Amino acid sequence: MATISSIDLLSYVGTTIGTVTLVKLLGQGSMGAVFIGYQTTLKRQVAVKILPKSLASSPNAQKMFRDEAETIGILNHPNIVPVYEMGETSDFFFQIMQLIAGSDLRSIIVKARKHPVPTKRILPFSETIHYICQVLDALDYAHDEGVVHQDIKPANILIDDRFKRPIVADFGIARTIWAEYSASSSLFGTPLYISPEQAARTETDGRTDMYSVGVILMEMVAGLLPVRSESPVDMIQRKKTDPDSFFTARPSEVNPAVDRELESIIATATASQPGNRFADCLEFKVELETYIRTRSLN
């Protein structure tokens, strides 16, 4: 499979897509790139995610993108990046969305870890759970609309500067990439957050997203993920064949401030078998809200 590094992304600057002109490369991932675009009709900046067709060449991936375009457009939730348009040119698929002024959760986690004061290297639990609950609310809404994200990770959760509101990005694009990934022997993205059923390339549903959120929650309250230092291929294999051995310690063993109740919630969300997880993201969210409420009273 081709990689994003083999494509001259800067050559796309100046390209016009309908009423939007790509003006600056903002960032890139393993298969896609994000540009700042300018929409001349409404005189506003937008974000434009592109997925070169050379990187999503399988018929399944291309069909997935086209099928998802109509579904994604109906998503309307304060914690989901609004998508204005999805389409394709001869060279790439694209998604035009609101440009969020802020940082992704991955950057916030990394910045906290570098704080000179050790006690500041983990975000306050209340702040973390506040973020996680809003993400779960967004996912529960999307799942009710029949949309599963399939690539929930800190880099796909944006925190806007003004209201400190978490906003989930990459709906639609993520499923297309996963369709391409499933059609090849290549690995897509980091395997840290994917569920065992994704590693095994079996059927997924909303509990797949729940597992990923559970891993993020574990990372944020423990300070780091208790996993082995192994290659992405080995991580995928471990999640596929021996998922119960993926985490090498309980969150409380990494950070003693994680109590039994919170650890139990994380364990349920990240259970290897989907049937042992919460029924849905709403149940997960309610458990966290109850935990915070009880913790505050104590």
Task: Give a description of the structure.
This is Serine/threonine protein kinase. InterPro entries: Kinase-like_dom_sf, Prot_kinase_dom, Protein_kinase_ATP_BS, Ser/Thr_kinase_AS. With about 300 residues, this protein is of the alpha+beta class. It has 2 domains: about 5-100, Phosphorylase Kinase, domain 1; about 100-295, Transferase(Phosphotransferase), domain 1 (Orthogonal Bundle), CATH 1.10.510.10. It has 10 helices and 9 strands. The strands form 2 sheets. A 6-stranded antiparallel beta sheet has the order 1-2-3-4-6-5, covered by helices on one side. Strands 7-8-9 form a 3-stranded antiparallel beta sheet. Helix 3 (about 125-145) runs antiparallel to helix 10 and helix 9 packs antiparallel against helix 10 (about 280-295). The longest helix has 20 residues, at about 125-145. It is globular. The termini are far apart. The model is unreliable at about 185-190 (pLDDT under 50).
Sequence-ordered SSE layout with sheet pairings:
Layout: E1 16-17, E2 20-28, E3 33-39, E4 44-52, H1 59-72, E5 83-88, E6 92-98, E7 102-104, H2 105-113, H3 125-144, E8 157-160, E9 166-168, H4 173-182, H5 196-199, H6 206-222, H7 232-241, H8 251-254, H9 260-269, H10 281-297
Antiparallel strand pairs: 1-2, 2-3, 3-4, 4-6, 5-6, 7-8, 8-9
Tags for this model:
298 residues; alpha+beta; Phosphorylase Kinase, domain 1; Transferase(Phosphotransferase), domain 1; 10 helices; 39% helix; globular
